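Page 47, continued from p. 46.
Same chain as before, 205 aa.
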Amino acid sequence: MNLTPKQLHILTRVRDLRVAHGYSPTLQELADELHVSKVTVFEHVEALIKKGALLREPNKARSLEVSPKINLPDEARRTRLPLVGTIAAGSPIEAVEDRQHLDLEDLFAGRTSRPDGTFALRVRGDSMIDEQIRDGDFVVVERCNQARNGQTVVALLEDGEATLKKYYRERDRVRLQPANEQYEPIFVNECRIQGVVVGVVRSIL
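Result:
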């Protein structure tokens, strides 16, 4: 498929933002990203939809999605995972996306068939140290919106902040439990599960 550099950029950003947040960017967000007008982005998006590279549900906001038939240049190896930001393991912090990649080569290959089904986050903080998840580690996360009690999850709180904790559904609330006695658990009525941790990568350099 013949795509321009800007069209490839748009496809990559749509994919990465869906991985990071679970929903697609708006046209205005894409325009801000490319430093162009919303009209220009609209023209690119419409061209990509006509080419079959982008999919969109009619009359539904934030529904842009990269066609599963499209292989973006940085998806040549399924183990080259998008490193989409930093996740708090202490007090929750605002989730901030970063455009990098973590290449795991043989690790976790074949765990999911979805190109956006697994992603990586860099840990900041020590609240999960008793689970051998340390400050500066990378956690490999399988995207899902449900978790079993005791699983380590990426949880998005009601205020939009994200945290890494062990998940426990109690009778009338959710307990997000740290693995460090110096931290108190977080109790919420509900939280949005962004994914379940399936691995930890540590650099010794």
